Amino acid sequence: MSPTWIKFRAKRITGLLTLIALLILTLVPTTSRAEAPTDQQDNDAEPCALCHWSETSTWEQSPHANNGVACKHCHGTYVEDHPAEGIMQLTVDSGQCSECHASTHQQWQSSLHATADVNCINCHVSHSQTTRLQSEQLCCTCHTDGFGDGCGSTAHNLAGVTCLDCHVSQPHKSVPGEAEAPSHTFTAVPAHLCMNCHSDSLHEPIENTMIAAQDSHLSASQKTMASQTQRVSELSERLESSRKQNTSYQFLALMLLGLGIGVGLVLGIVVVLIISYIGGKQEAAS
Protein backbone atom coordinates (compact mmCIF):
# COMPACT_ATOMS: atom_id res chain seq x y z
CA MET A 1 0.00 0.00 0.00
CA SER A 2 1.56 3.30 -1.11
CA PRO A 3 2.07 6.31 1.23
CA THR A 4 -0.22 8.38 -1.01
CA TRP A 5 -3.10 5.91 -0.52
CA ILE A 6 -2.50 5.89 3.26
CA LYS A 7 -2.69 9.70 3.39
CA PHE A 8 -5.87 9.63 1.29
CA ARG A 9 -7.53 7.13 3.66
CA ALA A 10 -6.44 9.19 6.72
CA LYS A 11 -8.02 12.34 5.28
CA ARG A 12 -11.27 10.49 4.56
CA ILE A 13 -11.41 9.11 8.11
CA THR A 14 -10.63 12.54 9.58
CA GLY A 15 -13.36 14.16 7.49
CA LEU A 16 -15.87 11.49 8.48
CA LEU A 17 -15.10 11.94 12.20
CA THR A 18 -15.45 15.73 11.85
CA LEU A 19 -18.85 15.31 10.17
CA ILE A 20 -20.04 12.97 12.95
CA ALA A 21 -18.88 15.45 15.63
CA LEU A 22 -20.76 18.30 13.95
CA LEU A 23 -23.92 16.19 13.77
CA ILE A 24 -23.65 15.35 17.48
CA LEU A 25 -23.16 19.01 18.45
CA THR A 26 -26.16 19.94 16.33
CA LEU A 27 -28.47 17.29 17.80
CA VAL A 28 -27.54 17.54 21.51
CA PRO A 29 -29.44 20.80 22.30
CA THR A 30 -32.52 19.50 20.48
CA THR A 31 -32.42 16.19 22.35
CA SER A 32 -31.90 17.89 25.72
CA ARG A 33 -34.82 20.21 25.07
CA ALA A 34 -37.01 17.28 24.05
CA GLU A 35 -36.19 15.24 27.16
CA ALA A 36 -36.42 18.11 29.67
CA PRO A 37 -39.90 18.80 31.01
CA THR A 38 -41.38 22.04 29.74
CA ASP A 39 -44.16 24.24 30.95
CA GLN A 40 -47.22 23.66 28.81
CA GLN A 41 -48.98 26.67 30.29
CA ASP A 42 -46.16 29.22 30.29
CA ASN A 43 -43.21 29.25 27.88
CA ASP A 44 -41.16 31.12 30.47
CA ALA A 45 -40.47 27.75 32.13
CA GLU A 46 -38.56 26.42 29.13
CA PRO A 47 -35.16 27.98 29.93
CA CYS A 48 -35.57 26.83 33.56
CA ALA A 49 -36.37 23.26 32.52
CA LEU A 50 -33.11 22.88 30.60
CA CYS A 51 -31.17 22.82 33.89
CA HIS A 52 -33.84 22.42 36.58
CA TRP A 53 -35.75 19.58 34.90
CA SER A 54 -36.35 17.74 38.19
CA GLU A 55 -37.92 20.79 39.88
CA THR A 56 -39.94 21.54 36.73
CA SER A 57 -41.27 17.98 36.58
CA THR A 58 -42.34 18.20 40.22
CA TRP A 59 -43.95 21.61 39.68
CA GLU A 60 -45.98 20.35 36.68
CA GLN A 61 -47.92 18.03 39.04
CA SER A 62 -48.46 20.68 41.73
CA PRO A 63 -51.45 22.87 42.65
CA HIS A 64 -49.39 25.88 41.55
CA ALA A 65 -49.15 24.59 37.98
CA ASN A 66 -52.85 23.67 37.95
CA ASN A 67 -53.71 27.25 38.95
CA GLY A 68 -51.42 28.92 36.41
CA VAL A 69 -48.62 29.83 38.84
CA ALA A 70 -45.41 29.62 36.79
CA CYS A 71 -41.72 29.89 37.66
CA LYS A 72 -41.64 33.67 37.15
CA HIS A 73 -44.35 34.29 39.77
CA CYS A 74 -42.01 33.14 42.55
CA HIS A 75 -38.55 33.46 41.02
CA GLY A 76 -39.11 36.58 38.92
CA THR A 77 -38.61 37.08 35.20
CA TYR A 78 -35.85 34.97 33.68
CA VAL A 79 -32.49 36.76 33.71
CA GLU A 80 -30.38 36.36 30.60
CA ASP A 81 -26.98 34.67 31.01
CA HIS A 82 -28.16 33.01 34.23
CA PRO A 83 -26.36 31.59 36.15
CA ALA A 84 -22.98 32.57 34.68
CA GLU A 85 -23.56 36.33 34.97
CA GLY A 86 -27.23 37.00 35.64
CA ILE A 87 -28.23 36.26 39.25
CA MET A 88 -31.82 35.40 40.22
CA GLN A 89 -32.42 36.13 43.89
CA LEU A 90 -35.26 34.40 45.75
CA THR A 91 -36.28 35.01 49.33
CA VAL A 92 -37.09 31.86 51.28
CA ASP A 93 -39.09 33.34 54.13
CA SER A 94 -42.88 33.23 54.41
CA GLY A 95 -43.21 36.71 52.90
CA GLN A 96 -42.79 35.20 49.44
CA CYS A 97 -45.90 33.05 49.95
CA SER A 98 -47.94 35.89 51.45
CA GLU A 99 -48.29 37.61 48.08
CA CYS A 100 -50.85 34.98 47.04
CA HIS A 101 -51.79 33.31 50.34
CA ALA A 102 -52.58 36.46 52.31
CA SER A 103 -55.18 35.03 54.71
CA THR A 104 -53.18 31.86 55.36
CA HIS A 105 -50.09 33.97 56.01
CA GLN A 106 -52.10 36.12 58.43
CA GLN A 107 -53.21 33.00 60.30
CA TRP A 108 -49.62 31.78 60.46
CA GLN A 109 -48.42 35.14 61.84
CA SER A 110 -50.69 34.72 64.87
CA SER A 111 -49.51 31.14 65.50
CA LEU A 112 -46.81 29.73 67.76
CA HIS A 113 -45.03 28.54 64.62
CA ALA A 114 -44.35 32.15 63.60
CA THR A 115 -43.11 32.92 67.11
CA ALA A 116 -40.69 29.98 66.85
CA ASP A 117 -39.59 31.18 63.36
CA VAL A 118 -41.03 28.09 61.64
CA ASN A 119 -41.53 29.22 58.03
CA CYS A 120 -43.60 27.75 55.21
CA ILE A 121 -40.72 25.81 53.65
CA ASN A 122 -39.92 24.15 56.97
CA CYS A 123 -43.10 22.11 56.51
CA HIS A 124 -43.85 22.39 52.77
CA VAL A 125 -41.77 21.43 49.71
CA SER A 126 -41.67 24.52 47.51
CA HIS A 127 -42.16 22.98 44.06
CA SER A 128 -44.68 20.24 44.92
CA GLN A 129 -46.49 22.11 47.74
CA THR A 130 -46.69 18.81 49.62
CA THR A 131 -45.55 18.41 53.22
CA ARG A 132 -42.03 17.17 53.84
CA LEU A 133 -43.27 14.19 55.88
CA GLN A 134 -46.58 12.42 56.18
CA SER A 135 -49.17 12.84 58.94
CA GLU A 136 -47.88 13.06 62.51
CA GLN A 137 -44.27 12.36 61.53
CA LEU A 138 -43.94 15.99 60.49
CA CYS A 139 -45.30 17.26 63.82
CA CYS A 140 -43.12 14.92 65.88
CA THR A 141 -39.90 16.16 64.26
CA CYS A 142 -40.25 19.33 66.34
CA HIS A 143 -42.74 18.39 69.07
CA THR A 144 -40.54 15.83 70.83
CA ASP A 145 -41.23 17.14 74.35
CA GLY A 146 -43.54 14.35 75.42
CA PHE A 147 -46.10 14.58 72.60
CA GLY A 148 -44.84 11.46 70.88
CA ASP A 149 -45.26 9.32 74.01
CA GLY A 150 -48.01 11.25 75.75
CA CYS A 151 -50.56 11.21 72.94
CA GLY A 152 -50.19 7.45 72.61
CA SER A 153 -52.11 6.92 75.85
CA THR A 154 -55.01 9.31 75.16
CA ALA A 155 -58.51 8.34 74.08
CA HIS A 156 -58.10 10.32 70.82
CA ASN A 157 -54.97 8.45 69.82
CA LEU A 158 -56.48 5.07 70.69
CA ALA A 159 -59.43 5.97 68.45
CA GLY A 160 -57.11 6.78 65.54
CA VAL A 161 -57.45 10.58 65.74
CA THR A 162 -54.22 12.24 64.59
CA CYS A 163 -52.76 15.70 65.24
CA LEU A 164 -53.84 16.91 61.79
CA ASP A 165 -57.47 15.89 62.35
CA CYS A 166 -57.87 18.63 64.96
CA HIS A 167 -54.99 21.10 64.65
CA VAL A 168 -54.94 21.49 60.84
CA SER A 169 -58.65 21.84 60.21
CA GLN A 170 -60.35 22.62 56.92
CA PRO A 171 -62.24 25.97 56.88
CA HIS A 172 -65.97 26.14 56.26
CA LYS A 173 -65.67 28.64 53.40
CA SER A 174 -62.84 29.39 51.05
CA VAL A 175 -61.51 32.94 51.01
CA PRO A 176 -62.50 34.83 47.81
CA GLY A 177 -59.59 34.98 45.41
CA GLU A 178 -57.59 32.31 47.22
CA ALA A 179 -57.43 28.55 47.03
CA GLU A 180 -59.11 26.76 49.94
CA ALA A 181 -56.47 25.91 52.53
CA PRO A 182 -56.45 24.38 56.01
CA SER A 183 -56.26 26.65 59.02
CA HIS A 184 -52.71 27.59 59.96
CA THR A 185 -53.32 28.78 63.52
CA PHE A 186 -52.71 25.15 64.68
CA THR A 187 -53.76 25.78 68.29
CA ALA A 188 -57.33 26.94 67.63
CA VAL A 189 -59.51 23.85 67.19
CA PRO A 190 -62.98 24.79 65.86
CA ALA A 191 -66.00 23.39 67.67
CA HIS A 192 -67.46 21.76 64.57
CA LEU A 193 -64.58 19.28 64.58
CA CYS A 194 -65.65 18.09 68.03
CA MET A 195 -69.22 17.81 66.72
CA ASN A 196 -68.08 15.58 63.87
CA CYS A 197 -67.13 12.84 66.33
CA HIS A 198 -69.13 13.61 69.47
CA SER A 199 -72.49 14.58 67.97
CA ASP A 200 -74.17 11.42 69.28
CA SER A 201 -73.34 12.28 72.87
CA LEU A 202 -73.98 16.01 72.53
CA HIS A 203 -77.41 15.99 74.23
CA GLU A 204 -76.69 13.26 76.72
CA PRO A 205 -76.70 14.19 80.42
CA ILE A 206 -73.38 15.53 81.50
CA GLU A 207 -73.03 12.68 83.99
CA ASN A 208 -73.17 10.09 81.21
CA THR A 209 -70.73 12.05 79.10
CA MET A 210 -68.31 12.39 81.98
CA ILE A 211 -68.62 8.70 82.84
CA ALA A 212 -67.93 7.74 79.22
CA ALA A 213 -64.91 10.04 79.10
CA GLN A 214 -63.67 8.68 82.41
CA ASP A 215 -64.12 5.11 81.20
CA SER A 216 -62.23 5.92 78.02
CA HIS A 217 -59.36 7.56 79.90
CA LEU A 218 -59.43 4.75 82.47
CA SER A 219 -59.06 2.20 79.70
CA ALA A 220 -56.11 4.15 78.31
CA SER A 221 -54.61 4.41 81.81
CA GLN A 222 -55.06 0.70 82.35
CA LYS A 223 -53.24 -0.04 79.14
CA THR A 224 -50.45 2.31 80.15
CA MET A 225 -50.28 0.72 83.62
CA ALA A 226 -50.16 -2.77 82.09
CA SER A 227 -47.33 -1.68 79.84
CA GLN A 228 -45.45 -0.17 82.78
CA THR A 229 -46.05 -3.30 84.89
CA GLN A 230 -44.62 -5.47 82.15
CA ARG A 231 -41.64 -3.15 81.93
CA VAL A 232 -41.08 -3.37 85.71
CA SER A 233 -41.28 -7.16 85.53
CA GLU A 234 -38.66 -7.26 82.79
CA LEU A 235 -36.38 -4.96 84.77
CA SER A 236 -36.84 -7.11 87.90
CA GLU A 237 -35.85 -10.22 85.98
CA ARG A 238 -32.77 -8.49 84.62
CA LEU A 239 -31.87 -7.24 88.11
CA GLU A 240 -32.21 -10.76 89.57
CA SER A 241 -30.06 -12.19 86.80
CA SER A 242 -27.41 -9.54 87.42
CA ARG A 243 -27.52 -10.27 91.17
CA LYS A 244 -26.93 -14.00 90.58
CA GLN A 245 -24.05 -13.23 88.24
CA ASN A 246 -22.48 -10.93 90.85
CA THR A 247 -22.81 -13.67 93.52
CA SER A 248 -21.10 -16.16 91.22
CA TYR A 249 -18.31 -13.72 90.48
CA GLN A 250 -17.80 -13.02 94.20
CA PHE A 251 -17.59 -16.76 94.99
CA LEU A 252 -15.11 -17.31 92.17
CA ALA A 253 -13.03 -14.36 93.35
CA LEU A 254 -12.87 -15.80 96.88
CA MET A 255 -11.84 -19.21 95.54
CA LEU A 256 -9.10 -17.69 93.44
CA LEU A 257 -7.94 -15.59 96.39
CA GLY A 258 -7.79 -18.64 98.67
CA LEU A 259 -5.98 -20.64 96.02
CA GLY A 260 -3.47 -17.83 95.54
CA ILE A 261 -2.82 -17.55 99.28
CA GLY A 262 -2.41 -21.34 99.58
CA VAL A 263 0.01 -21.54 96.67
CA GLY A 264 1.97 -18.57 98.02
CA LEU A 265 2.20 -20.16 101.48
CA VAL A 266 3.47 -23.48 100.12
CA LEU A 267 6.05 -21.74 97.97
CA GLY A 268 7.18 -19.68 100.98
CA ILE A 269 7.66 -22.80 103.11
CA VAL A 270 9.61 -24.50 100.33
CA VAL A 271 11.89 -21.48 99.95
CA VAL A 272 12.53 -21.35 103.73
CA LEU A 273 13.37 -25.05 103.79
CA ILE A 274 15.77 -24.72 100.91
CA ILE A 275 17.52 -21.75 102.53
CA SER A 276 17.79 -23.67 105.83
CA TYR A 277 19.16 -26.71 104.06
CA ILE A 278 21.80 -24.70 102.22
CA GLY A 279 22.77 -22.90 105.42
CA GLY A 280 23.19 -26.23 107.25
CA LYS A 281 25.43 -27.58 104.53
CA GLN A 282 27.65 -24.50 104.66
CA GLU A 283 28.03 -24.77 108.47
CA ALA A 284 28.92 -28.48 108.26
CA ALA A 285 31.51 -27.77 105.60
CA SER A 286 33.18 -25.06 107.65
Structure notes:
The chain is mainly alpha-helical. Among the domains are: 98-221; 244-277. Helices cover 64% and strands 0% of the residues. It has helices at 3-35, 46-51, 53-60, 63-66, 71-75, 95-98, 102-109, 112-115, 120-123, 135-140, 147-150, 155-158, 163-167, 191-198, 206-285. The model is unreliable at 28-42 (pLDDT under 50).
Largest sheet: none
Rounded radius of gyration (Å): 40 Å
Q: Strand tally, please?
A: 0
Q: What is the rounded distance between the termini?
A: 115 Å
Which structural class do the helices and strands define? Answer: mainly alpha
Q: Mean pLDDT score, rounded?
A: 75
Overall helicity: 55-70%
Helix count equals 15
Low-confidence region ranges: 28-42
* Percentage beta strand: under 5%
Q: What is the H/E order?
A: HHHHHHHHHHHHHHH
Query: What does the overall shape look like?
Result: elongated
Which features characterize this protein?
286 residues; mainly alpha
What's the quick description here?
The chain is an all-alpha fold. Among the domains are: 98-221; 244-277. The chain has 15 helices and no strands.
